[in-house]
Amino acid sequence: MADCRGHVFTKKTFHLPAYCHNCTNLLWGVVTQGNFCTVCNYIAHESCLKKPGISPCHSLAASLIKNPVSHCWSEPARIRNQRCCNVCRKRIDGRTFSVTCEICHYYTHVDCIPSAVADCKETATYHPGKLLTSVHHEHHWREGNLRPGAVCYACAKPCWTTDCLAGFRCEWCGITAHATCRTQIPYECDFGILGPIYLPPHAVSIPRTEVPMESIIGVQVRRKDKQTPRSISIEFSSGESKTKDAEDEEMYEVEKTKEDKNEELVKVYDGDASYLKHTSFTVKVPKAVKTETLISTILQSLNISQSAENFYLTDAYGLNEPILEDPNPINNVTRLGGKKPAVFLRLKQDSHGGLVRVYPGRLQTDIPFCVVSVDRQTTAKDLIVESLARFGFTSHNSTDYRLSQVLLEHGVTERVLDFDEKPLDIIKNIGQESLRQMELMRFYLQLKQDPHGPNIALFVGNLPTGLSQRTYENILMTFLGEECRFLTIGPIYYEYGSLVIMYNETDVAVNAMYLLRSSEYEHKHLLVMLLPNIDPVMVPADTQPLLVFVNVKSGGCQGLSLISSFRKLLNPYQVFDLGNGGPLPGLYVFRHIRDYKILVCGGDGTIGWVLQCLDNVGQDSECSSPPCAIVPLGTGNDLARVLKWGAGYNGSDEPIHLLEDVIEAEKIRLDRWTVVIHHEDGADGRPIHVPNSVGKLIF
């Protein structure tokens, strides 16, 4: 069957109940009930293939992303809820480990993570010079795993199902729709019912660094392996990775007994990197398979959408890697010690030149990408000049731009090219190492100037309290040295042993962050956070962004569940974990916003902590007394009882309903005071201070 949005459909007979991924209805019949994509497992009625709204095949989805954003994975767990994997589209059950993105509603098996599409929400899209009136925010659609009872925004009929991966949800405003109805919905998103408290992404900027998202927003995930920068030669790995010893012991004769006598198991390497790492995957093909058919089967397994005519096969165990050709390529493969026959998939390389795609990233243009012809003499600077002309920026100076190489596998990895590097050589080298990496590699045209600006703020905590500014400077310089000297220091929160230091160079700031994180003072590890920046001019006048503080240690596991839900429902840069620096980082980030609200999730002690910090830093903020709401997670929750927020959160209320209550709640004024007790006998002249909540607007 002809391809449909990258799918490779075949007629299939389903022996168990199967459901259409477009209309969610059951496939009826005894034989060949529907169509099945051999690449991504998409299932559809014959009639549904003619309807609009068919989601793209997984092999095509990555190429449709304009600005790739890495997912922020949770800790692997056995998910008990009825979910479907966004990669393989199969059911997620409690028997296997799965993960979900902490920022969006992307679910996947652990084994499917390498193939996950890097299309998380763009949470910081600030562009200097862009006017608020010219900002148009589009829906960010996520397929499947809709909440029970979800109805279509267009036709008002139920669109949720647990039988398959179907239906769509906007990650921003939360509206849901059928696949076919989605095309009827206007493209512009207004953030829905949470719009009045949403921190718009176009007001937020973060420094352009390689610091992972988890580190910036403070996601606490236990990792067994320390994360290190990836190189091109080690990035690709398959789900069937084996050590060399295990591979040597793998006997082809054992598996051969399980095969059909007319079929063959063939081990495939997609490049030199997979061979050196002993990572491969296996395809089952007829023994009399033709070369073109075998290549097509391998390309489907790798999710590569290019034509089979661009590739050839070689004998992995043969001397000098001979090329395999028809009529019987499998019969010509060298077989060593009873192992499976092994082949390399190689790209036919034109020695004279080729075509490359260049994406504009966040540059102000409606052109999604341009295709530029390159040869062996073309440099990165030449490609920048030609791309600027294709995007309509003929009057711009090429020296103000840079060209980045972006890999989309296992997240997003970026490397800035030197002006004299040869793009064609880069493509050839990556193709030799891994064809899958080459398929997921892009060139991006970007302004050299970081949209975040020159001021990069690092929050430093866990220092001794009550020291002088000079003492704090000396402590930090002991760890940083002259190479990572900060530009300015302040504000300093003397009472909490915390401060903010500023840099004007990104590389120096990142090095300083890692140096301080690995340092201890008085047997305590320093706490260091890279802070985002909010431009208050880009916050609409009718919006009061909600600053959320969550004490994850309160209420058992409810704090962890709430902070994960709030990060999905809101912009993660407006949700802060109090266990990671306390309230001060959030209050600093929001200091320039003229009107905002606060939601505190915790007990009475947590609320008093936040209010006390507001007292200390309020005079330095545009909004000195923001109204505060409470989600009671403590034991007593006396203040929450008085303000009618309830005696305690038991998890029965959906987090989105809590946010709706914050929007609709009435403001009331609450006095806050401090009791000072003096001893009558005068034996100890030191007063006893008993703080309590005061003087803030609580609603």
From TrEMBL:
Organism name: Cinara cedri
Domain DAGKc per the UniProt entry, residue ranges: 541-679
One CC-aspect GO term: membrane
Domain Ras-associating: 262-350, 352-450
PROSITE patterns: DAGK (PS50146), RA (PS50200), ZF_DAG_PE_1 (PS00479), ZF_DAG_PE_2 (PS50081)
Domain of life: Eukaryota
A Pfam family per the record: RA
InterPro entries recorded: ATP-NAD_kinase_N, C1-like_sf, DGK, DGKtheta_RBD, Diacylglycerol_kinase_cat_dom, NAD/diacylglycerol_kinase_sf, PKC_DAG/PE, RA_dom
GO molecular function: ATP-dependent diacylglycerol kinase activity; zinc ion binding
SMART domains in the record: C1, DAGKc, RA
A GO BP annotation: signal transduction
Protein name per its UniProtKB record: Diacylglycerol kinase (ATP)
Entry keyword set: Metal-binding, Zinc, Zinc-finger
Annotated Phorbol-ester/DAG-type domain residues: 6-57, 70-120, 138-189
